[in-house]
Amino acid sequence: MNNTEPISPLDLSHSLPVPSVQELARSGEIPKRYLRPEAEANPVASVDDDELPAIDLEKLLSPELNNEEEVNRLGFACREWGFFQLINHGIPEEVIERMKDDIKKFFELPLREKEEIKQLPGHIEGYGQMFVHSEEQILDWGDVLVLIIQPSQNRNMRFWPTNPSTFRANLDAYTKKIGEVADCLYRFMAKDLGIDAEDILNLFSDQIQSVRINYYPPCKQADKVLGLSPHSDGTALTVLLQANDVHGLQIKKNDKWFLIKPTPGALIINIGDMIEVMTNGKYKSIEHRATINSEDERISIATFNAPSIDTILRPFPKLVNGDGELYKTISVKEYAKRYLSAKLNGKGALESMRLRK
Ligand code: OGA
Ligand code: NI
Q1: What is the DSSP code (8-state) at residue 352?
Q2: Which of 20, 105, 144, 252 is deepest in the core (most CB within 10 A)?
Q3: Per-residue pLDDT tens over the stretch 189-236
Q4: How many domains does the chain have?
Q5: Distance 300 CA to ligand 1 centre (A)
Q6: 301, 177 contact by CB (below 8 A)
Q7: Which domain holds residue 278?
Q8: 352 in Cβ contact with 273 (< 8 Å)
């Protein structure tokens, strides 16, 4: 990489190189480094009788369709769940289907071809893994492709797949739509919180957007591995799309793991650490993890949206009330650095910012 290429906001940390899990899965080998104690990998208890809230974007947008009620439901989901599914989001089906197809095709390529865009030493973008910082660490059973999407001048095209040939255009179209949906949601969150929409939207005018495409191969000892360790997302708002029909995302609710089974066509949205800070804890960034299927591969694409790199993260004054600010003030850049330079550890990064309960 030559020195004139812009530094992307993700180049604040890197991950130690580890083997392709897709290849390991093919070989049938499960090295010790991936195995977790039973209790950690799979403390059962999915609460199936509690429905993940579904928020209807069409209702939010339409004044005649009881917008107020839907805003309240959105607020409830962000405060009590930190997660919801978004239905009637308005993204054309073909934009989503094309993205899914191209992601599947990319992971079907031989390793040699995928490695043409592998992560370089000291960088996080590209094909590889994330959050590996020591040789002793238990590893996640999954491969990733990480790309920075916005600001567009930070795109590092050497990591964008050219096979399938439509991948770049389809990723561009998909993430643009996701950005629009996120902006829409910020507007209605502002309404629920009783703050000026412009106060939130201004922070996101030059927003950072990145994607992590997750490939989780099947594993014969599925209950002894995890695809993605428990974590909360370090950014502001995440939009997750399952690229095939295999479930595996679990979120922590009342100290139990709850399996997310989205309605076909819905997007899964979650509050990240930055919004928890900006709302002084009113909206919750919830711990979640990805579990592995013993028979089938699972693929997802997470789009992370964050305010511009120099934004100072602090609660909106109107949301502080009598209890004062609950978190330390920090820039987006410093928080991203902190988040990326440790292994995933539940809500550890956010807790390190906490001033009081
Ligand atoms: C993530 C994430 C869950 C999944 O990428 O941050 O939580 O189901 N993914 O892939
Ligand atoms: Ni996540």
Answers
A1: T
A2: 144
A3: 999 999 999 999 999 988 999 999 999 999 999 999 999 999 999 999
A4: 1
A5: 7
A6: no
A7: 21-351
A8: no
